[in-house]
Amino acid sequence: MALVELKAVRKSYALGETMIDAVRGVDLEINTHEFVAVWGPSGSGKSTLCHLMGIIDRPTSGSVSFHGQDVAGLSDDRQSELRNHSIGFIFQSFNLVPVLTALENVMLPLQVRGEPRELAREKAMARLREANIDSHAHHRPKKLSGGQQQRVAIARALVTDPLLVIADEPTANLDSVTAHRILDLMREVNHTRGTAFVFSTHDQRLLDRVTRQIQLSDGLITEDKIVSA
Amino acid sequence: MSPWIQIAARSLARNRRRSLFTMLAIAFGFAAVNIFAGFTEYMFVSLRDAFIYAQGNGHLTIFKKDFLTEGQIDPKNYLLTETDLATIKAVCQADPRTLTVTPKLFISGMISNGKTSTIAIAAGVVPSDIAAINKRATGTIGRAKLFTGQPLDDKEGFGVGVGTALARKLKLDLGSDAVIMSPTVDGQMNALDIKILQTFDAPVEALNDKLMIIPLSLAQNLYDTKGADRVCVLLNDKDQTDIMRDELTSTLAAKGIPVEIKTWYEISDMYERTKKMFDIIFLFLFIIVMGIVVMSVVNTVGMSVMERIQEIGTLRALGVKRRGILKLFALESGLLGAAGCLAGVILTLISWTAIKLAGPSWVPPAISRRVPLEVYLVPRYLIISFACLILLSILAAVFPARKAACSNIVESLGHV
Description:
The structure holds 2 protein chains of 2 kinds. Chain A is of the alpha/beta class.
């Protein structure tokens, strides 16, 4: 069974009086262990596709299934629970909660699901160590560099042991050295835990490291190929 | 600590100036409501105590049944007889809740200084009983001296007190002699010599040139009766007023004395009217203050929501439910309300202390002389306003927070 399955998915937005088709009838399957890049020019629909796979957006038509379950039939609360338990997000601008320390940011998804504070703290520290940012655990985001913030964001995305991580341009704001380190970290997690990663990107550094490249153009998949990383 | 409390508290601290001003708005509102409530409480207690203790009316007044409707036209048949008075006194005094039982006889007639006469309304009282009731007064009323001259005496049967305006009108000084005239219960004219022992301020300005206090024996002599038109009963607990009224009514009816018993709050028009007036003013003030607080909190939370839309989107993406976002902002607003209320308590205490130290005085409605103006600290008002303000702060956050919670996650994430 595919981890994520999109069938004839279409997503339209209203822009003034005109409707824009961001995704136009896409069929796609993402499996566990995959390390996938969705790429294409700006406006090709790659972010929209990632949002649909991450269950933070609903398709205009077609269906999105997660682990065999049609997400359209789930309530908003149930979708929230699904995201919390099975999906991790890494954002281009890191999106850490500014008033929480790095450790508290990583603890947050666990506390959302009601895990005891001490247990959440233990798991969060372990993830920060894996991301090699544990020395900055008690720093707030504004005291961290871009690379450090992205490491915290990765630790936060992985702390719940998700089946899927959606990463929107995760290396866009990082220098080459940091970008490579971050990619190494994500690749390692993909190898060791089987966590599927889907990146929305047009960063060649990232495209060179993935095992599958899905090219989008004008809301349609123009190429879907397996590559050796 | 819950992550929501952490986020809420730190977000408030992050926008220090905005949080401080909102907190101060709540604090000033809280203090304004409580200072005014403390003043109204002082007013109500003073009015109540003035009626019950200073004017010697007690908590209950017993009349013969229908006296209040028929007694003015046909006083003879609606006076409590000497036997009735003895029975009522015995029944009341047998109850441990009773402190003092005293008969009164109100008469109307004329007072003359030998040259000029004017209308007078005289309350015939037992001076020692009234003095016993007066002594029970506490606070402002207990400290206030309500007459000039000397107290009336049970033995000095012709010594009377007159309203200050009445004394001025007839040029009566302390120690002056005068004559009081009144019809007897049978309608014959009667007159007796009196001596002015005291002047006092009547509780109602319009009565100050008419009202007299005379010993009951003098009133009875003038009226040619051994009876009285009412019996006042002072209780040891005001909360027993209604229960005692019901019990006494049935007990006295069983003993063959049909009576009508009025409570202090039924008779005291001044108390009732003043209370209603101040209750309405208080309600207006409360609504205005609460309105300001709600608008202030809505503004603060609204701005906070606007600034944190991306954060809200992130939290939703991490799996926080819509009600979790509502909870977060409600908590933030509740904390702001609680901090404002705590500052309000401090501000109230400072204002209360300042008023106490300054010791202002004024002439209240029920007393025609200057007395200290006080503000009471009323715990129940403090608790109620604390709870109301926190609740309103939380409710005020619901609208902007609900909008944020229901917004599209993708749009929120893209918001900068």
